[in-house]
Design a protein that fits this description.
single chain; mainly alpha; 2 helices; about 90% helix
Length: about 60
């Protein structure tokens, strides 16, 4: 039987991931508007680096 705290932590984690992704997209849009860079370029570089960096770190730690 799963405790109610597991469900609570899952919901809190899900909300944190959704809000963090929202902040990341808003920051990328702000960055593109501040520097006059097209949003496609920011999405293709900065956002993609931010999403692949955790995978790269796990792979590097696994190889080490």
């Amino acid at each position: 039987m799963i405790s109610w705290t597991v469900y609570l932590l899952f919901i809190i984690g899900l909300i944190a991931v959704i809000k963090g992704a929202d902040w990341a997209v808003d920051s990328a849009v702000w960055l593109s508007k501040s520097f006059g860079i097209p949003e496609v370029i920011v999405g293709a570089t900065i956002v993609s680096i931010g999403t692949t960096l955790p995978e790269t770190m796990i792979s590097a730690l696994g190889a080490y």
